[in-house]
Amino acid sequence: MAEITAALVVKLRKMSGQGMMDCKKALEEANGNMDEAMAILRKKGLATLAKRAERETSQGLVVSRESDEGKTAVLASLCCETDFVANSDDFAAAAAKLADYAMACSADDRVDSVLATELDGVKYSDVLTELVSKPIE
Q1: How deeply is 62 buried, as exposed, middle or buried, from its count of CB atoms within 10 A (0-12, 13-18, 19+)?
Q2: pLDDT tens digits for 15-51?
Q3: The pTM is what?
Q4: CATH superfamily of the domain spanning 6-52
Q5: Closest alpha carbon to 11 in 39, 40, 32, 42
Q6: Which of 48, 91, 101, 118 is deepest in the core (most CB within 10 A)?
């Protein structure tokens, strides 16, 4: 079994935004492999997302974007359970990213298309999963 150092746990925490103990457990499960540990944390994030899917979301942000030529615009709404979350910098950044992803889709695309859209090699569904599973500090 690989030695799980505090520095390795801190590095994974910075990469993932997850709690120290979650990072340590993921590294232990992955035998110290950083990529496998990230995959474990993502899987845990999907489970968290599924648990929260039925909860009422009465808070959030609406972000707008307009194309440079002014012919296309989007309004993107990202909802959450509490104003505490809605007022966090991470949530505001995710809402802004949602608007960017929506601008990257054609006008007739549906929500699933936005979730599957990639910008800079990252799907919005991955951005959302990381946001939902990230503890608010």
Answers
A1: exposed
A2: 777 778 888 888 999 998 988 988 888 888 767 666 6
A3: 0.59
A4: Ubiquitin-associated (UBA) domain (1.10.8.10)
A5: 32
A6: 101
How far apart are alpha carbons 25 and 19 in whole angstroms?
10
Tell me what pLDDT residue 135 has: 58
Q: What stretch(es) of the chain map to CATH 1.10.8.10?
A: 6-52
Burial class from Cβ neighbours inside 10 Å (0-12, 13-18, 19+) for residue 28 reads middle
- Contact in structure between 8 and 27 (CB atoms under 8 Å): yes
Phi and psi at residue 122, in whole multiples of 5°? Answer: -125, 130
Q: Give the CATH class of 59-133.
A: alpha beta
Identify which of 6-20, 86-100, 102-116 has the greatest average pLDDT.
Answer: 86-100
Angle at 101 between CA 103 and CA 16, to 5 degrees: 160
Residues of the chain with CATH 3.30.479.20: 59-133
